[in-house]
Write a structure and sequence with these properties.
The protein is mainly beta. 7% of the residues lie in helices and 56% in strands. It has a 14-stranded antiparallel beta barrel. It comes from Rhodocytophaga aerolata.
Length: 308
């Protein structure tokens, strides 16, 4: 088992070195990205990775912005406890022309009990605890000691928690996750506005039978949020994914571009690319590329749910 784990981790790290992640993951790249209740949905030991790069023109046509992000997650179902657990680590980097650049790291733990209904459906409540650190840096020659710029340079630390609920079968899933608590200290520039934030997520696989060579899976994430200083609640599309599969080949579109990949019972490899057409960052996005990877070590004693 240890040899398999070492091999997979080596492959994941190698792929992340080739392509790093932009501002957002393609939906489905990391199971627990929006809802911690996805932890343990495959019953077996699973490793997932997403990484990519995004290049923007920035606030003006004379500036350039580079976004890099990389994430790695592990999740597993523990039969003795009827509970899924998941661990996700991520890092990011954002550089904007000659101005400051921001680096961030984070780690989160998810715990998701599973309750089976007649062996066909699964209901899973979940709780996630996270810790993050962000560091902003401004070039020395741009800092005016008599200005406020030097006050914006520094580190911010934060802890957060999220609750989730997921209902799913072999073809359908419906989930909702909401932020419970967030506390951040450090640089004022890096402290996000407090408020309410949640995600409603759904997906369905259209397939004649489990043995069919062709299937179609649409997925959608809707964000429901409100900033502390704004009374109005914002409702909008956070992410989407339309995936077609024929045998082992998968293709389609998502919020991070056009994707194509290879999928088996254990392995899923997907590449997304966009030249500013589908990416929701706007017309200033010149290029966005993402690479996601997932491997399941065993498919035995599978509980209801595809893992998505």
């Amino acid at each position: 088992m240890f040899k398999h784990v070492t091999t997979i981790l080596t492959l994941v790290v190698g792929m992340q070195a080739l392509c790093c992640m932009g501002q957002e993951n393609p939906l489905g790249a990391l199971p627990m990205e929006y809802n911690p209740a996805f932890a343990g949905q495959m019953s077996s030991f699973r490793i997932s990775s997403a990484s990519g790069y995004t290049f923007d023109r920035g606030f003006t046509t004379h500036s350039q912005e580079h976004f890099v992000r990389s994430s790695l997650s592990y999740d597993q179902f523990i039969p003795a406890l009827r509970t899924g657990i998941g661990l996700t680590a991520g890092s990011g980097w954002n550089q904007s022309g000659y101005s400051f650049n921001i680096r961030s790291q984070g780690l989160s733990l998810s715990i998701a009990p599973k309750f089976s209904i007649e062996g066909k459906y699964t209901v899973s409540p979940a709780l996630e605890i996270g810790y993050g650190q962000t560091n902003s840096m401004w070039p020395r020659y741009r800092i005016d000691r008599d200005s406020s710029f030097d006050k914006l340079v520094g580190k911010a630390y934060g802890i957060s928690s999220k609750a989730g609920l997921l209902f799913n079968s072999n073809k359908l899933y419906l989930g909702y996750a909401v932020s419970l608590f967030r506390h951040t200290t450090g640089s004022r520039l890096l402290i996000p506005a407090r408020g309410f934030n949640s995600y409603l997520q759904a997906g369905y696989t259209f397939q004649r039978s489990a043995q069919s060579a062709f299937s179609f899976t649409p997925q959608l994430v809707i964000q429901i949020s409100r900033l502390s200083h704004q009374p109005k609640v914002h409702v909008g599309v956070e992410a989407y994914n339309f995936t077609f599969r024929y045998k082992h080949v998968i293709w389609g579109i998502n919020n991070a571009g056009i994707h194509v990949g290879w999928q088996t019972e254990k392995l899923r490899l997907m590449l997304s690319n966009d030249a500013g057409v589908f990416n929701r960052n706007g017309a200033d996005t010149m290029y966005s590329g993402n690479l996601s990877f997932r491997y399941v070590f065993s498919r035995k004693n599978q509980i209801p749910g595809r893992g998505w």
